[in-house]
Design brief:
The structure is a single chain. This protein is of the alpha+beta class. It folds into 3 domains: about 230 residues, FAD/NAD(P)-binding domain, CATH 3.50.50; about 140 residues, D-Amino Acid Oxidase, subunit A, domain 2 (D-Amino Acid Oxidase, Chain A, domain 2, 2-Layer Sandwich); about 150 residues, Glutaredoxin (3-Layer(aba) Sandwich), CATH 3.40.30.120. It contains 17 helices and 27 strands. Strands 1, 2, 7, 8, 9, 10, 18 and 19 form an 8-stranded mixed beta sheet that branches. Strand 4 and strand 5 form a beta hairpin. The longest helix is centred in the middle third of the chain and has 23 residues. The structure holds flavin-adenine dinucleotide (FAD). The site of flavin-adenine dinucleotide has 35 residues, from helix 1, strand 2, strand 8, strand 15 and helix 9.
Length: about 575
């Protein structure tokens, strides 16, 4: 039987699998990706690509292609029906302080596009990448491991030929119904599913109907066709209408033929005079669960294989993207011999809690949105007269308008997008400072993000210019991604000498940061570096390849009396994991 060999096999060519392959190749890891379908998906799901996702896509050189297809949304609106009453919404310009915080916190703002467009872009980049063998039309049929390697049987569906792939590791990104996760005996943990939803992909000029432009979502709040039209980026004629159906009442997914879909859509529009073309129809289940272990031997789980997210808040793919960004550099460090094997366990310990948090928050959003009369699951209450000009109808609309105002953290959640951190990880050296929410008396850390470089945090954004190109500031994140980076303030040479004098655990790039006009490597274009990195004219910050801070010193090396830079590097690659002191 034919056998291929690689360092890492990625199973699944959805958005997370394709990103994983690109991330591994970016770290110099040889990989093969197998996807059972001949082509990328034709039915969109995800549309909201958040700040952290766009930062990672920028690292991969993919973000500009995505922005070219995207919408920077104006907000979200709630209607009884699209030709009925508008009940309220969130116009982002009504939150100037929040919007200013978002713009100050990243060089890669969130956007709305379409998962089918994203997958197509990712596949083009993967196809063009010499470090990845992309095999679409290839289905994983079985997988086993013996401690040293993973052996996977793959069926080339067009040729009818089965062969084996031998890899050191495998990352299963097979979606919610992952057979690899089942074969590994792993279980999804969390509350049982609580609803069924039909996702109807349509072409229709909804904005022409409402007169409202550049909206990410039109929520529909009524008793018979609640749900949401999800906008799909720059193509303003493509939408997905998601509406619940009820198997307990005898409804089934098969009932949704073109006639039934059009009936539902016209009821949601409140008119049948608008031309609507049904492009695709597919069901999904409202379920928020997380796999019990992210790793089984040499097999790892990512994306929907690791967690099923209810899409309220848009944290499914976005969480998956962060996951394998966390994993890729660790696999590379181990494969290069820079880190012990134990570093790979920290994929589970660093990421699972964040997935649990995002899944719970998404579930909370899905439950709270019912109060507005719009829902993906369950039946809305108190909407029987919501369309009518009766006292009861007016009272129902007023109640729903009040409920919409309570959904702020469902739509404005910068803290959840980029405020997460690996605070208690054995790869992080704490510096005794508090979490930003505690330090700044923030009562809602999902909504509010305060830039900070507490060890564990995503390194904060600021604009910097390379010394030789002073007129073209770049996001600070552009200097991360390849290896560890030491950002130094003041005594940059001294810090460099402090590691030159002994062997560091891993290669390290040292970059000094100073004011515009100085001879530092990075020029602090807006004069914000000291503030957001929490330093005062001296000190240093160590940043991992995934852009998270793992150590910080508040003074120069001669006065620093905490964990030394060299020891911190050792910790950062797993050197302290088995230490009883931790
Ligand atoms: C209506 C809706 C809206 C959403 N909106 C958002 C949003 O705005 N933002 C967001 O972040 N998320 C959103 N999500 C969630 C998002 O779509 C998923 O999280 C995302 O698709 C997960 O990507 P994945 O690559 O992990 O899995 P999938 O997209 O499911 O891809 C898995 C791939 O693995 C392949 N595969 C499976 N088994 C095998 C095998 N044996 N061999 C080879 N290949 C195999 C499949 O064919 C598939 O291509 C939404 C979901 C829905 C339903």
């Amino acid at each position: 039987m034919k056998r291929l060999q690689t360092e890492v096999l990625v199973i699944g060519g959805g958005p997370v699998g394709l990103s994983t392959a690109l991330l591994l190749a970016d770290q110099g890891v040889d990989c093969i990706l197998v996807e059972k379908h001949e082509t990328t998906a034709s039915h969109p799901k995800a549309s909201y690509f958040n700040v952290r996702t766009m930062e990672i896509l920028r690292q991969l050189g993919v973000a500009d292609d995505v922005y070219a297809t995207a919408l920077m949304p104006q907000g979200v609106l709630f209607y009884t029906r699209l030709t009925g009453h508008c009940l309220g919404g969130y116009n982002f310009t009504d939150f100037p302080e929040y919007t200013a915080r978002v713009l100050a916190s990243t060089g890669s703002p969130a956007c709305v596009s379409s998962q089918i467009v994203l997958e197509d872009i990712l596949k083009q980049h993967a196809d063009a990448n010499a470090g990845i063998r992309v095999l679409f039309g290839h289905e994983k049929t079985s997988i086993e491991q013996d401690g040293a390697r993973v052996l996977t049987s793959v069926l080339d569906r067009a040729a009818g030929e089965t062969y084996e792939i031998e890899s050191r590791f495998a990352v299963a990104c097979e979606g919610i119904r992952s057979s690899t996760r089942d074969a590994c005996g792993r279980k999804m943990v969390g509350p049982p599913p609580f609803g069924h939803v039909m996702n109807i992909y349509v072409e229709a000029d909804l904005e022409g109907l409402t007169g409202e432009r550049n909206q990410a979502l039109f929520w529909i709040c009524n008793p018979d066709t609640p749900g949401a039209f999800i906008g799909l980026g720059g193509d303003r004629l493509k939408w997905c209408f998601n509406t619940p159906y009820f198997p307990e009442d005898g409804e089934s997914a098969e009932d949704f033929d073109e006639k039934r879909c059009l009936e539902r859509i016209y009821a949601a529009l409140g008119t049948d005079s608008l031309p609507v073309k049904i492009l695709a129809v597919g069901p999904w289940v409202l379920c928020g669960q997380v796999v019990d272990q992210y790793r089984q031997g040499n097999i790892f789980f990512g994306g929907d294989t690791a967690h099923s997210n209810i899409p309220t808040g848009g944290f499914g793919f976005n969480t998956g993207m962060q996951e394998t960004h966390n994993l890729a550099w660790k696999l590379a460090a181990f494969l290069k011999g820079d880190a012990p094997e134990a570093i790979l366990d920290t994929y589970h310990s660093e990421r699972r809690g964040i997935a649990v948090f995002n899944v719970e928050k998404s579930r909370e959003n899905a439950i709270n949105i019912r109060d507005t009369g719009a829902t993906f699951g369950g039946r809305p209450d108190d909407t029987d007269e919501i369309d009518l000009d009766t006292d009861r109808g007016r009272a129902q609309r007023a109640a729903k308008t009040r409920a919409i105002a309570e959904q702020k953290t469902h739509f404005l959640f910068l803290g959840q997008e980029i405020g997460f951190g690996y605070w208690d990880s054995p790869l992080i050296v704490p510096d005794g400072t508090d979490h930003y929410a505690v330090a700044n008396d923030v009562d809602d850390p999902v909504h509010v993000y305060i830039p900070n470089a507490r060890p564990g945090a995503r390194a904060p954004h600021c604009w910097v210019a390379l010394r030789d190109v002073p007129d073209k500031p770049i996001p600070m994140h552009d200097v991360f991604g390849k290896g560890f980076v030491l950002l130094t303030r003041g005594e940059g040479d001294e810090w460099s000498r402090s590691i030159d004098s002994g062997s560091a655990a891993v290669p390290l790039r040292s970059l000094s940061v100073g004011p515009v006009g100085s001879d530092s490597d990075l020029l602090d274009a807006e004069g914000r570096w000291d503030e957001v990195y929490g330093l005062d004219g001296q000190g240093a910050v160590l940043v991992r390849p995934d852009g998270h801070v793992c150590w910080r010193a508040f003074s120069g090396p001669s006065h620093h009396d905490g964990v030394t830079l060299r020891d911190a590097l050792g910790v950062a690659v797993g050197g302290a994991i088995s230490s009883p002191a931790r």
